[in-house]
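Standup, Tuesday
Yesterday: got the pipeline producing structure tokens again.
Today: sanity-check two examples.
Blockers: none.

Example 1:
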Amino acid sequence: MPADSLHENRLHGSLAFPFQHYTMATAPDRIFVPCHWHDETEIILMKQGQVELLLDGSRHILSAGDIAFVNSQQLHQYSSISSAVLYYAYVFSLDALRFLNDDITMSSLISPLCSHELDFPAVLPRECPCFREVYSLIGKIIFSSEKKEEYYQLSTKAHLYEIICLLARNGLLRQHSSTNKQSDMCRRILLYIQEHYSERISVAEISKNLCMSPNYFSAWFRRNFNKTFTDFLVHYRIEKAGRLLASSDISVTQAALQTGFENISYFIKKFKEITGSTPAQFRKNQTSSI
């Protein structure tokens, strides 16, 4: 079971309809969603630009037109890697697709998906026969979610059932692979960063905590996170600082110090490099978008 402190424990949608559509765009700031997991399944539809998606340590580059799936309790992280990114994320509870009666559809597809015996594919291959149809169905779900036409909840469920049917028919639902040593190590590293990001963290210190040599840890981290440990830590701290600036009235200096930056000039430089805005501009953008 994934560690609780990486669990995004918030309600997506409502208790009456646990389905939620999110529009993610880089303007005016770039995207960095740090590693987390949730009980719900997530469907990603790329519309513009490129995003790096990490799934349990595996790296996927998503471009405009791509479709990806994040399975329940799967550790994942998003980073925009182009100047203009737009993607839709649709998060929903598989349990909400259960039937009252345990018929053949429940026993062969819905229940195995809910109990993690079956998984959705990480990225839907564009060459698969059902790609265009799945793409169209996801678009219809997003449109229904935005317009909220009468009984859109029913059409949403119907489209999700169709997607599951198409994936199953084309052999794209796969047997669940239990958490391996690689993803366990990813979780341990992320938990350490989460607990200590506001302090001084050195490669020597974290590698010792994980019983690795510094050189082995650095190589392992870059291979699994596609960033050096230092770069990843800076991105993580900037994301935390951005949240502080957007949700409180603390000063830029306080935001820097509370997220582990001792040099304010370096903080402002890295903040602009990563988000595309200075800390002051970022706060103004967040305030004006409310």
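Example 2:
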Amino acid sequence: MKIRELRVKHFGKFQNARICLRDGINLVAGENESGKSTLHTFIRGMFFGLRRMRGRASRTDTYSRYEPWEDPALYSGELVFESGGKRFRISRNFSRNQASERLICETDGELLSVADGDLNMLLGGISENIFENTVSVGQLKSVTGDGLAQELKNYMANCQGGLDGALDLAAAEEYLKKKRSGLGAAKREKQERQKAEKQALLSKLSYVRRECENLEENLRTAEENLKRQMQQGKDAPERPGEKSRGGMAAAGAAAAVLLLACVCALCMLQGFHPLLLAGLALSALLLLGIVRYFLRRRIQPGRPKEDPAREQISRLQWNIEFLSRDLREKKTAAENAETEYREYCLACEEQDPLETDIAGVDLALETLKELSSGMEQKAGAGLRQRMSELLSALTEGRYTSVSVDGDLNLGLYSGNTYVPLYQASRGTLEQVYLALRLAAAELLCPEEELPLLLDEVFAMYDDRRLGRALKILADQGRQVLLFTCQSREEQILKQLSIPYHKVQLQEESI
């Protein structure tokens, strides 16, 4: 890939600026605050966009730092580059209210899609993290960030799988860990739910059993009462039968008639007047009516009086029948509850599919760990070899090889002497990390040879080291954008007859 042109409509200090670049080394020179780092950030933003932070962090993030104050809608630009023998143009509007992106192949006029991954494909499938830790080196950032160590581990795993960078080890491990955590939470939730369900079923069973026990006790008591009541009925003497209430009424009526007849006979013998006899007869009939009235009120003829003992026995028999029926129903309910509880307990003891899933995730994590460990050694050999070659060239053979462990802890060998990196000078450290970035760029960006963006990375180099570094960069044949505020780089390029293209940033052009 080669960057051909930067068209900055409004980005930081730049307004309607147009900068052309060429193959090989492009020397972007300017004094401090002339916009070198702004152009560096612009290129990265055109390739990967600018993300806005949230909350207080948004006040000092990269997006806000370069956003135009007077007209944020003009926060935009274009970048023209070549890839695979074709010329492309990426246009972006960074405005928060009008954000947009457009990718066009100028060679054949085809409209491509950034959202669908066309730009990422042209960049060789690299992530912004790889870009930042390999080919893009900002001011005071010659030491790689922690992200490079993880990207190298990803690459090592990819080498084993033959996936050509398609596997993201960190993302895979993070996904598996989240999956493991989610499955564990689901298992705990299921166990709590099963425990609660068991307790509910057991409480139901205990309740029904207690009801059966209470009914059995009530039934025994009722049966004992019935037995005792019936026994008392057998032992009691028989009472004489009551006269018929209807007979009593008839006897009373006969006595009244006999009384009336006697009175009438007595009156006739004595020679009483007939009216007197009629009055006596009427009085007798009235007396008979009164007697019958009182007999009906007091004795209630025609309705036999109930036996209290028999009534009590009937009530006890009915209660026993009711309790027996209720007990049978409760025993059936208890059997059903016990069966339900036993079947649920057996179901809980069966193999839980969640446990199978968790075991599978644990196996995948272990396999991933073993794969990563083994491939770090395999791919690490290639990284050490390429770093050693570059460092030997940068130091003119003073340091012949480099050791790298899985965490990117580095050590140097000078002949047979091992030198821990912390004992090396700052200039040597700069050379080591430049070699590391170049070697990592070759490993992590095999699909597309991306331009090197070096922003004031040679400040700690002496002239001799700087000359060797510039020669190595020129021999690689890669496009290099060298941002500098000094004239040293240009002077040494001229002394070594290394061709370069200079872009001079002036205050009036910004």
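Quick observation on example 2: Residues 155-167, 240-244 have pLDDT under 50 and may be disordered. Residues 201 and 341 are 6 Å apart (CA to CA).
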